UniProtKB/TrEMBL annotation:
It comes from the Bacteria. Pfam families: Hydrolase_3. Gene3D superfamilies: 3.30.1240.10, HAD superfamily/HAD-like. The keyword Isomerase applies. The keyword Isomerase applies. GO terms for cellular component: cytosol. Keywords: Isomerase. The lineage of its organism: Bacteria, Bacillati, Bacillota, Bacilli, Bacillales. This is Bifunctional phosphatase/peptidyl-prolyl cis-trans isomerase. GO terms for molecular function: isomerase activity; magnesium ion binding; phosphatase activity.
Length: 259
């Protein structure tokens, strides 16, 4: 058997194609990696409940979710970094005045302040979730929120960026921006996991495509940018593969010698 590798995959645009599905060849390749003794993990901006079926279908028990704010190793939570309730209260009040809906995400659910807003429909709709998103403006008061979503057009988040110093804003959609507590990232999540697992960074591989993958791909020497990825991801990655819709993930596994 080859030396054990630890391989991280982003979900949207990496594992998932444009139809939010894992291509058959990619799934076959990932299961082969596991059969050969490698450790397959996920690093995503999504919350755990958003990719439960994916984890089950691929047999994955180790993952970095919410861009590093909620980390699980072999089914055990090893790191949590929630946004302060004070910050969420202030964000909610400011957003309400500006007609900017907010979503609150914990490990089990996602609730929005205003479900019927067009920006919410467009942003949440792009995730193609298999459940109905409920409305609850006070959800953050009773739950640990690891990531919020601010629904606004590009540039409208600027006043919020200036107002808060304990969170950062990362746009992922025309009408939606992640609000993430400072202190965690996919890269820091990888550092925590490799320390816990006793794996050398040289044995770690990472695949990604979006702005929230830049730190991760900059950290990992064996980094792979998807052909559909943003330019910054391609600049920091060792390898560049084809588009996810053209079996780019499998191509990347072949380029790195993993399969």
């Amino acid at each position: 058997m080859t030396d054990k590798k630890l391989i991280f995959f982003d979900i949207d645009g990496t594992l998932y194609n444009s139809d939010k599905k894992v291509p058959a060849k990619a799934q076959e390749a990932i299961l082969k990696l596991k059969d050969e003794g490698h450790i397959v993990a996920i690093a995503t901006g999504r919350g755990p409940f958003m990719f439960k079926e994916l984890r089950e279908s691929l047999g994955i028990e180790t993952y970095i979710s919410y861009n590093g704010q909620y980390i699980v190793y072999e089914g055990e939570v090893i790191y949590q970094n929630a946004i302060s309730e004070e910050t969420l209260d202030d964000l909610t009040k400011r957003a309400y005045k500006n007609d900017h809906p907010v979503a609150y995400c914990d490990e089990n659910d996602l609730r929005v302040s205003t479900r019927e807003h067009n920006h919410v429909k467009e942003g949440i709709g792009s995730l193609k979730l298999n459940f109905q998103v409920n409305e609850d403006r006070s959800y953050y008061q009773n739950n640990d929120i690891y990531q919020a979503l601010l629904f606004c057009e590009e540039g409208e988040e600027d006043p919020y960026i200036k107002a808060f110093d304990d969170v950062y804003f990362l746009r992922w959609h025309e009408f939606a921006t992640d609000v993430i507590p400072k202190g965690g990232s996919k890269a820091k999540g990888i550092e925590m996991l490799i320390e816990k697992m006793g794996i050398d960074l040289a044995q770690v591989y990472a695949f990604g495509d979006g702005p929230n993958d830049v730190e991760m791909l900059s950290l990992v020497k064996n980094s792979v940018a998807m052909g559909n990825g943003v330019d910054e991801v391609k600049r920091v990655s060792r390898y560049q593969t084809g588009h996810v819709d053209d079996n780019g993930l499998v191509e990347g596994l072949e380029m790195t010698g993993l399969i």
